[in-house]
Write a structure and sequence with these properties.
This protein is α/β, with parallel strands linked by helices. The chain folds into two domains: 10-159 and 320-454, FAD/NAD(P)-binding domain (3-Layer(bba) Sandwich), CATH 3.50.50.60; 166-314, Elongation Factor Tu (Ef-tu), domain 3. 29% of the residues lie in helices and 17% in strands. The strands form four sheets. A six-stranded mixed β-sheet has the order 6-2-1-7-18-17, with helices on one face. It has a six-stranded antiparallel β-sheet with strand order 10-11-13-14-9-15.
Amino acid sequence: MPEPAVPTRAVVVGAGLAGCEAAFQLARHGVPVLLLEMKPGRKTPAHHADTFAELVCSNSLRSDRLENAVGLLKQEMRTLGSLILAAADRCRVPAGGALAVDRDGFTGTVTRALRADPLIEIREAFVESIPDGPSIIATGPLTEGPLADDIVQFLGYGSLHFFDAAAPIVSADSVDLSIAFRASRYGKGGDDYLNCPMDEAEYLAFHAALVTAETADIHDFDKGAVFEGCMPVETMAGRGLDTIRFGPLKPVGLTDPRTGRTPYAVVQLRQDDAARSLYNLVGFQTRLKQKEQMRVFRMIPGLAHAEFERFGAMHRNTYLPSPGRLAADYSATGPLLPNVRPDLFFAGQMTGVEGYVESASSGLLAGINLARRLLVLDPFVPPPSTAIGALSAYVSGERSSAFEPMNANFGLIRVPEGRSRRKDDKVRATIEESLSVATSLAAELPPFRSPVDAL
């Protein structure tokens, strides 16, 4: 094996979840980093905070259970030494079986960790073209303007797009606790959710108001794809009378203490900060106009006097035609590129991975692999028997169907052969194989010293 080269400074564009993880992994390998971020001087419509790794939609990183693919992905990332997971674990708030975080505490922790790293220089800049030299582009799904045009030209193919949305957040003090009750579904975790129960008449009236409410005009919305995981609640409700009752409003596993019975429907509110002062409406991503959000959502029992600290909103996202253009290490070396750039990597939702954790996982692999390229080491590509490797294989591999953003799921992970065909057995075998491989791979990386421990 050749001797490692003297590290050259790498540029990371964008300090979202993926960019922050990538910058940390580069520095962890001893590679100097220039992290370019346009905030606080300039923000997209989805951003509010001046800090890095902002959670623009929910404060939940979804399930933390190994039996859920995103929970398995989290554990792999912990094993491989993820900054984002270290910060999330540090800033955890109660959410049953999910990993939810204090939104401000999380982004502040990541920002302070990066600013304290002597190998990371942070500079405010609005980047208008792909940098020369070793670089990672992690500017997110709202990338636009000259940089987006430059990326399209480099790829030799027009960008695709879809729409996603954020749910509203209400103040805890404005929720009527004589109606709403604390409980977690099926008793998993503590009493981490506020639950607003509906009887049949209340549900029917709410559904009728929801599907006829006035929505904000969003250019090309009706022509664009809507990612199922961020489907506006009014769009979902329009698919049928019971669609949301079997979706975000499903009452299964909950009992209304006032009646002793399972409600007809339930709206759940999840804690959004450590102080329990803010709650978001779970599954209520929306494009309703603000006045309509107040009118319709205050029909929910317990929310008649809800004070909205943040209204729901929808925005257009862009993502790359990654298969055949990105390799499994997230480098721009695919066979469909007009010109390959071995020192250029992409990371985050713009690659077609969907979700906070998935985005960070791509940044983790992109950062590790750019560092290893500069250090003249072999690529670090986890196999598709792991959740993190299955995602990278999905965005880079050949496809027989249209490419669209994808969350971590067991359907992507290659199930070990020679095991039982029962679903539970397959899941157990997949978890066992995945964590075993991740542990072996971690030995190839520099020791992980969590930077959040010193904060």
